[in-house]
Write a structure and sequence with these properties.
Length: 111
């Protein structure tokens, strides 16, 4: 009878570990979705910059104030942001793949 309770305890522990993995996986998926949204937004801004004249005025919202910015500086900032977002998406994708594999392995242990 004690071996049955040991098996139940192990199963419960494995089940909790699986639930924690699922929660972490959900958080990573949300993070990836946020990054993809930021990427789309910055790509849109980058496309808009391509359609502007060189002498167009560009403003950046800093707190409650619009501050005038140089077009080349603003375009460079957006490209740098896109590079950072892309590298962050790659990092999150790797994390997502690792968590998915761990989750599947844990699912096999529990199931």
């Amino acid at each position: 009878m004690s071996s049955l309770s040991a098996v139940e305890a192990k199963l419960e522990a494995e089940s909790k570990a699986f639930q924690l993995l699922q929660k972490e996986l959900s958080q990573v998926i949300e993070s990836r979705q946020r990054l993809e949204s930021q990427q789309q937004e910055n790509e849109l801004v980058n496309t808009e910059f391509e359609h502007l004249d060189q002498d167009s005025n560009i403003y950046k919202l800093i707190g409650p104030v619009l501050v005038k910015q140089d077009k080349s500086e603003a375009a460079t900032n957006v490209k740098n942001r896109l590079n950072l977002i892309s590298s962050e998406i790659k990092r999150v994708e790797t994390q997502l793949n690792e968590l998915t594999q761990k989750s599947e392995a844990k699912k096999q242990e529990v199931g």
